[in-house]
Design a protein that fits this description.
This protein has 220 residues and is of the alpha/beta class. The chain has helices at 25-36, 53-63, 96-112, 131-138, 150-163, 170-179, 184-201, 207-214; strands at 43-46, 67-70, 85-88, 115-120, 141-144.
Length: 220
């Protein structure tokens, strides 16, 4: 809980500093080292939906001197030989031609002095890809993005409220943990809505206020 997000606006650009670290300290350290050029070698990270895969890829590219983020759709023209760091997202969605493009990128990476940073939704051995490409990805340094526990989510949400000068009723947090979506973007969205409603209605952030919002515009 030592590294809390400083800019929690939903439209804030992804950075390595505004990722909720949890049990992913080793992963963050490796991404920082790759971004600074202190570590070489391809990396593959994987995790469930809303685990932060795209956030981490974009954030690492933003922290690097020369990097490019590529969604799957951008691989139709192949992986460019420059810059030095190329991040390819959602590799589990690669089609026939884009699988070939990524396999070729692995083969040319050494001569191009290029590092590949890849992300998918499952472990390397479970990827439904060409055998040769799956083997290459399996040889990467791999990290599973560890999800936050509910205890950590609740603590982070309370800490974010405190940073804003808000008093977040404990019943509100418990209700969200039991009945709402528990990924951090959804929880931050709910906190934003409660903050705004509290200001507009001049009411404390309590369970009755949350239930009032749920009956109108808020979905959790």
């Amino acid at each position: 809980m030592k590294q809390l997000v400083l800019d929690i606006r939903l439209d804030a650009p992804p950075t390595l500093d505004n990722f909720f670290v949890g049990d992913n300290a080793a992963l963050l350290a490796s991404l920082r080292a790759v971004a600074s050029g202190q570590q070489r070698g391809h990396i593959y990270l994987w995790g469930e939906r809303c685990a932060g895969r795209s956030h981490l890829l974009r954030a690492t590219c933003a922290a690097a001197n020369a990097a490019r983020y590529l969604p799957v759709s951008a691989l139709v023209d192949g992986v460019p030989p420059r810059p030095a760091l190329v991040a390819v997202d959602d590799v589990h969605r690669l089609g026939g031609s884009t699988q070939i493009a990524l396999f070729n990128a692995f083969n040319r990476a050494r001569e191009n002095g290029q590092t590949l940073l890849l992300a998918g939704d499952r472990a390397p051995a479970s990827l439904v890809l060409r055998d040769d490409l799956r083997t290459r990805i399996s040889q990467c340094l791999s990290f599973e993005i560890q999800p936050l526990t509910d205890t950590a989510r609740a603590a982070i949400l309370s800490a974010l409220a405190t940073q804003r000068g808000l008093r977040l009723d404990g019943d509100v947090v418990s209700y969200l943990m039991r009945h709402g979506r528990r990924d951090m973007p959804s929880l931050v969205h709910t906190l934003n809505a409660l903050d705004l409603a509290s200001l507009e209605r001049k009411r404390a952030i309590t369970l009755p206020l949350l239930r009032t919002l749920l009956q109108s515009e808020l979905t959790i």
